[in-house]
Amino acid sequence: MSAMLKEISHIVERAKSLLAGCGCEYAEIRLSSGSGTFISLSGNQIDTVSSGQTVGGSVRMLCNGAFSFIFFNDMAQIEHFFKRGIQVSRLMKTKTKTKIRSYKPVIKKFRTEKAKDVGSISLEEKFKLISSYNKILKSSHCIQTTRAVYRDLQSTSAFLNTEGSEILYDKTYCGISLSSIARDGAVIQPFHDSFSGYGGYELVENREPDAERVAKTAVDLLTAESIAGGTYHVVVDQKLAGVFIHEAFGHLSEADFIHENERLKIIMVNGKRLGPEGLNVIDDGNIPGLAGFIPCDDEGVLPEKTKIINNGLLHARLHSRETAEKMGEAVTGNARAVGVMNQPIVRMTNTYIENGSHDMQEIFEAAGNGIYAVGAIGGETNLEMFTFTSGYGYEIRGGKIGKMYKNIVLSGNVFTTLSNIIMIGNDLQMFGGLGGCGKGGQSPLPVSFGGPHILMKNILIGGAN
Amino acid sequence: LIEQVVNKLSANTGWFDIIEISGVSTPIQFRNNRLHSVTEYQNSGFGVRVSINGKTGFSYTNDASGLMEAADRAEATSKFGDIEDFELPTRISNRMIRGYMALTSPLRSTRRKMR
User: Testing the interface with B: which of A8, A40, A41, A51 to mutate, by most B Cβ within 10 A?
Assistant: First the structure.
């Protein structure tokens, strides 16, 4: 038993007896104890070296059709806070009673598989590693400044509910973020990449080639041309395909969003054709190691491999217990919270476009003349409209990669864009990073996203010329 | 425990702060003229800041029993701090400072600082 698990195990027994006699339709208790390290370097300066410990617990209960939520970190008073939860939910005399889906009891223990425990690595060693990457990031005289971040988190959490679930999870999360900012006169060109996942220190070791690539790309982009605006055949790489499917489409398949939006209810009807035959979009929280891995969601539901799009047809959406009940569908294990201090809401996990049958060469030959857009540095969505800025890109001429471009901004309607997919590659890759997804004031939630290379027609690209 | 930590830090550091914060908040939300949610948050914790060889280190915990470990971590992080180019104000001993909210409402809010 880990030291952190020992810390909360005596509270678990008290939590179980509270749940046994609560008399509510449903109640759950989440407990967590964790510690972490954060190191941030900028250029030649040390921004932050910090290390701390947090404990916390929360009670969420559904009494007489109303939810209450209490967060606390004084574990010794769990009985007091549980009683407060009952008092608060009785205050809420709702006209419309909330109902939720019930689920089987889950009794399991989970543990992150890791080769090197971050807890056994000294602060000095972690500092030395991120400093070595920072040195590579500033290796060219064109690099104006850098930012290198290391973060790890070890925690033990317990989930208990009135259905009899008892889930214990020993979790280790680790990652780095690397940025170089190149400058030539008035031209300033940042480039960034980040790597994270559930695992040990091995996730962040041997990343020298990645740091070299970040620095080189930032410098190369100084001399890259801006693309001329227009409509192009576009090949998107695995990362941009993943960002597109998470940001532009994935959020629209979160059932709380659909249920509250009349226009989306009309658009997001199961069985509707959204893309070509062979287009499959998946959300699957049960992929160990990836940033969006969850052994169970924050309502005690095991994650499903949910086929959101099946052969081009809208097939399912992502649910919490509450949205599944409201929409008469099955739970999918997508109720997640950034920590025990937050209530679970519908979120994605690991979201991706499944492999198709084409290799990269076939895709570039089919593109003929167009643009190859690589990575993503930002963007925004407004219902079905999206705008993403690709990290960089290349001209495609006669099926071959040509000169480098920067400032490639792709815009459009997600449903039109899905229907404009011509070819789907067979080289799926998944991406995570130290950042994460933000929704309802809860950020960053670890998620991963990805896809194979994808060829799309008639994509609007904004440009300087 | 605080006395033990104070003794340890007095011996090992040039100066140190231990800050304790605790509070309770109750957000109440109405949507469309209806009570939507009532939640309650209880939060408390300690921050430890130390100066060793003219360099500052910091750590935190929200588990009161982990204060000694927080002090250890603060000492460890001080090795990476920049050389201090500031001076702290004169000594304030064990003074309880109350915000005006504490005088006018039953909400609890205390902040204690020792140097």
Answer: A51
Nearest-CB residue to A53 (from B37, B42, B66): B66
User: For residue A88, with 0-12 CB atoms within 10 Å meaning exposed, 13-18 middle and 19 or more buried, which class applies?
Assistant: buried
Q: Mind listing the pLDDT tens digit for each residue in B44-97?
A: 999 999 999 999 999 999 988 899 999 999 999 999 988 888 777 777 666 666
Distance (Å, whole) CA A417 – CA A275: 8
pTM: 0.90
Q: How confident is the model at residue B107 (pLDDT cuts 50, 70, 90)?
A: very low
Give the confidence band of B29 by pLDDT, cuts at 50, 70, 90.
confident
Tokens at residue A175, please? 């990652």
Closest CA to A166 of A288, A5, A25, A324: A5
Contact A56 B62 (CB under 8 A): yes
Residues A334 and A283: their CA atoms lie apart, in Å, by 9
Q: Identify the three-state secondary structure at position A123.
A: helix
Q: Tell me: the pLDDT tens digits for A314-359?
A: 999 999 999 999 999 999 999 999 999 999 999 999 999 999 999 9
Answer yes or no: do B38 and A33 touch at CB < 8 A.
no
ipTM above 0.85, yes or no: no
Identity of the residue in B35, B42, B69 whose CB atom sits nearest the CB atom of A71: B42
- Across the interface, whether the CB atoms of B80 and A127 are under 8 A apart is answered yes
**Beta strand residue intervals within A281-391, DSSP E:** 281-284, 305-310, 313-314, 335-336, 345-346, 350-353, 370-374, 378-382, 385-389
